[in-house]
Specification:
The chain is an alpha/beta fold and about 230 residues long. The chain has eight helices and 14 strands. The chain has two domains: about 5-120, Response regulator (Rossmann fold); about 130-225, Winged helix-like DNA-binding domain superfamily/Winged helix DNA-binding domain (Arc Repressor Mutant, subunit A). The longest helix has 17 residues, at about 105-120. The protein starts with a strand and ends with a strand.
Length: about 230
């Protein structure tokens, strides 16, 4: 049973999320303000944060930024009624792992929760897989660490999973839909911007010049690949 914190000020939506996540067997606490959420995060042990962006005392993006400065591993699922592509991408590039646009279906909500929790469980350090060298990067799957030269990079769990998936298959091109299926664990159409935003965040951390990427290459009209010899 996982502990899931839901930050949502609309009571009907919060109750809907609580009911259908509890049906999966998890413990749920709901907060309706950022202040309440900060206290709950400081005093509890959580495996997933479900975060609305429009809250009475501020923007959920601010909480997302705060968390990513101190905790790269807590999965964050955004709930947003913000309609524009720019607003959704902004949330992902702030550090959220995934998003759902209101109104959303309960089956899709449950699928996202399952996928994020499953990936978080798989992300626990351990195992005996050998380190992967993609110069100038070195990935250690057992310790879930990435180094560029002597510097250890600070990646979120999803960023690490995406980079590790590509590093295990250097030179192979994957479509955005394939990456959604393999890394995020679901097959819904229309969420390719999730992949784009995570690639942009990864490039900002691993590339010498993110505006001219040499490691994660875009194959126009197809998808992305990790160059084995950039």
């Amino acid at each position: 049973m996982a502990g899931i914190l839901v930050v949502e000020d609309q009571g009907d939506i919060a109750n809907l999320v609580r009911m259908h996540v509890e049906m999966l067997g998890h413990r749920v606490q709901c907060c309706d303000t950022l202040a309440f959420a900060r206290r709950a995060l400081a005093g509890g042990d959580w495996e997933l944060l479900v975060l609305d962006l429009s809250l009475p005392d501020g923007d959920g993006l601010d909480l997302c930024r705060e968390l990513r400065r101190t905790d790269a591993s807590l999965p964050i699922l955004m709930l947003t009624a913000r309609a524009t592509e720019h607003e959704r991408v902004q949330g992902l590039e702030t550090g959220a792992d995934d998003y759902l646009t209101k109104p959303f279906g309960v089956l899709e909500l449950q699928a996202r929760v399952r996928a994020l929790l499953r990936r978080a469980a798989l992300a626990e350090p351990g195992g005996g897989e050998q380190a992967i060298e993609i110069p100038p990067l070195r990935l250690d799957p057992a310790r879930r660490e990435v180094c560029r030269g002597e510097r250890t990079l600070d990646l979120t769990a999803t960023e690490f999973d995406l980079l590790l998936f590509l590093a295990r298959r250097p030179g192979i091109v994957f479509s955005r839909q394939q990456l959604l299926s393999e890394v995020w664990g679901y097959h819904h159409q229309g969420y390719e911007h999730t992949v784009n935003s995570h690639v942009n965040r990864l490039r900002a951390k691993i590339e010498q010049d993110p505006t001219r990427p040499q490691l994660i290459r875009t194959v126009w009209g197809v998808g992305y690949k990790l160059e084995a010899t950039p």
